[in-house]
Amino acid sequence: MTQPAGPRAATTSPTTPPTLPGIDPRGPRVGAAITAVLLAVVVVLGVAADTWTAALVLLVVVALGFALGVARGVQGTWQGWVFTTVVRPRLAAPAELEDPRPPRFAQLVGLVVTAVGVVLGLAGVAAAVPVAAGAAFVAAALNAAVGLCLGCELYLLGKRRR
Amino acid sequence: MPQVLALVVLLTVTTAVGLWWRARQGRVRAARPAAAAAAALPGLVEDWAAAGVPLGARATFVQFSAAVCSPCRATARVLGALVAEEDDVVHHELDVDEHLGLVGRHRVLATPTVLLLGPDGAELARARGAMNPAQAREALALAPALP
């Protein structure tokens, strides 16, 4: 069965089709930076009683953005629109395009975390709003700053538990 | 002011997590000799062949990848370039969805995870997260060159 591995043995790669409909890889990271700033504002507003309602409203706005990202892909969010209309025209063409599925998975994780914060906040658990926003901030900020890939870290954990 | 404290805690935690995460990306961990000896059981070559992984004469990079993993593509390019210039070393990329049994048996927790196998199919080293060319060469150095 073992084939002789001769010189120039090729890589086998069933997971990476040669042509993928790609997106500019900088788009999701710019979007994540915008989202991270909003989530930091939610945390700051959410820890004080007099601004807590504003924090909840802003967290709903962020959660709706994640819902758009899950439904249409990260390029279909308002942050994606900001990137393509404001940021991208000022940049050179990207060196390579990226598969849209990994950032879309990250949008789903963001939606779950922020939605839990909104639901618990509405149910009277005031601390849930800044805590959920803080957790989502860590992921969004690290995505923007160092390219943290949530699909890499979380997808398999869900699969293995099943 | 609770707002300032919350922001400081948030940024400190984020920075710490980011530094920790980045430092372990692609770090090569050699298999402990005892574990490698225990893993060097007869039948491993056939096991890997059954999974569609014929082993290289010197070493084999087995990369576990997923569709939701963008650094998997970069890692596949790095390993593909390395095996193209090394005789007797091969690289196979496996989709985790199609190989959940291997994922469980080899304790793969995240993608990309790269196992370096010897000619007998035993694990020599592994790395989790995106690998750069220097890390790929560092891993390969753990596989003895053929005489």
Description:
The complex is a heterodimer of chains A (162) and B (147). Chain A is an all-alpha fold. Chain A has six helices and no strands. Chain A has helices spanning 26-46, 52-72, 78-87, 101-122, 128-146, 150-161. The longest helix of chain A has 22 residues, at 101-122. Chain A is globular. The two termini of chain A are 33 Å apart. Mean pLDDT of chain A is 88; it is low at 1-10. Chain B has 147 residues and is of the alpha+beta class. Chain B has helices at residues 2-24, 33-39, 44-50, 71-85, 100-105, 133-140; strands at 28-30, 59-65, 89-95, 113-117, 123-128. The radius of gyration of chain B is 18 Å and the shape is elongated. The mean pLDDT of chain B is 91. Classes of the chains: A mainly alpha (162), B alpha+beta (147). Chains A and B meet through helix 1, helix 4, helix 5 and helix 6 of A and helix 1, helix 3, helix 4, strand 3 and helix 5 of B.
Key features?
heterodimer, A: 162 residues, 65% helix, disordered N terminus, B: 147 residues, alpha+beta
Main beta sheet of chain A: strand number and arrangement?
none
| N/C terminus separation of chain A | 33 Å
Q: Give the overall pLDDT of chain A as a whole number.
A: 88
* Number of H/I helices of chain A: 6
Q: Counting H and I runs of at least 4 residues, what is the number of helices of chain B?
A: 6
Strand content of chain A: under 5%
Write the layout of secondary structure elements.
The complex is a heterodimer of chains A (162) and B (147).
Chain A: H1 26-46, H2 52-72, H3 78-87, H4 101-122, H5 128-146, H6 150-161
Helix pairs in contact in A: 1-2, 1-3, 1-5, 2-4, 4-5, 4-6
Chain B: H1 2-24, E1 28-30, H2 33-39, H3 44-50, E2 59-65, H4 71-85, E3 89-95, H5 100-105, E4 113-117, E5 123-128, H6 133-140
Parallel strand pairs in B: 2-3
Antiparallel strand pairs in B: 1-5, 2-4, 4-5
